[in-house]
Amino acid sequence: MEKIDEHKSFGGWQQRHTHASKVCGCDMTFSLYLPPAAETAIVPVVYWLSGLTCTDENFPNKAGAQEIAADLGIAIVAPDTSPRGDDIADDAAYDLGQGAGFYVNATAAPWSRHYQMYDYVTHELPQVLAEGFADQLDLAREAIAGHSMGGHGALVIGLRNPDRFAAISAFSAICAPSAVSWGEKAFSTYLGDDKQAWLDYDATALMHAANNPKALPPIRLEQGLADGFLDEQLAPEQLEAAARQTGARLEVNRRKGYDHSYFFIASFIEDHLRFLARHLGA
Ligand SMILES: N[C@@H](CCC(=O)N[C@@H](CSC=O)C(=O)NCC(=O)O)C(=O)O
Fold first, then answer.
1. Catalytic residue among 114, 260, 272, 279
2. Which of 48, 82, 84, 238 would bridge with 101, disulfide CB 3.0–4.6 Å?
3. Which atom of ligand 1 is nearest to the CA of 51?
4. How far apart are the first and last CA of the chain?
């Protein structure tokens, strides 16, 4: 692993690191905020998964989370949104290929060779963090958050690993990807046409299928009502219906006038980090 950038921020450090990923078969870059508390103790970890067209840099540059993370004593890890490189499959569209990995393990060629983002975020990245930051990060205390495609990723990873993630935070998440065009396009491309296979990556389906829905991690979902993607792509009402039917813990906050942008995220990130920190015992 190589540190490629570092800035002091609110007493802690905003860093970027790159490393060779076996799972994705390419170099992967992630951003990491270390709060001041990490200088003397191990601190809980929040993963932030970004949306379509993003890299690891959108969240640290735009969300304004560092001051709150410093206050709460939590680290924030923001991975890239896909494998990247000249020799890696891509598509000209903004919602497929590089920058649009959808946090799945692709099974269809040519994508399956590198697009293994579920395993990368869930297994390889935590291992890299455990090895590289043993004196700073407490990998036994994890929570997960994200925006849009990354909100979908946070919901799926959190719901599939309920014993691991203390809580889930999502902004403007794609809540029922099998039923909307962003998800149909990505899943048919990365996973093939068998829609049964899609359900492993569909938060609403996962909630319905959970053995013990009441024991799933608590979810806080923030949704702007002026979001141009709300009607066509996000379907928070489907996740709400699943929570009502199953008893899973879900709080949805609808915010008048807010759109899909990082201005929305920055407006409510403090509430979400405090929610995650509470469940992390931070
Ligand atoms: N057509 C647009 C769409 C890209 C976009 O809005 N991306 C969002 C996430 S959308 C769902 O995953 C985003 O976070 N963009 C980055 C940012 O910093 O705002 C386009 O190509 O711009």
1. 260
2. 82
3. 12
4. 28
Candidates 202, 201, 184; CA nearest to 193 is: 184
Residues with beta carbon inside 6 Å of ligand 1? 51-54, 58, 62, 94, 147-149, 260-262
Each residue's pLDDT tens digit, 191-232:
999 999 999 999 999 999 999 999 999 999 999 999 999 999
The domain tally of the chain equals: 1
Residue 282 has pLDDT above 90, yes or no: no
| pTM score | 0.98
Residue nearest to atom 16 of ligand 1 (CA): 54
Q: Give the Å distance between the CA of 259 and the centre of ligand 1.
A: 11
**Residue ranges making up the domain that contains 223:** 2-280
Alpha-carbon distances, residue 193 vs 107, 116, 178, 201, 277 (angstroms): 11, 18, 11, 14, 39
Contact 35, 15 (CB under 8 A): no
pLDDT tens digits, 56-100: 999 999 999 999 999 999 999 999 999 999 999 999 999 999 999
Q: Which among 49, 50, 52 is the best mutation to test ligand 1's pocket, defined by most ligand atoms within 8 Å of the CB? A: 52
Which helix (H) or strand (E) is 197 found in, with range?
Answer: helix 195-198
Pocket perturbation via mutation, ligand 1, pick of 48, 50, 53 by most ligand atoms within 8 A of CB: 53
Does the interface ipTM go beyond 0.90? yes
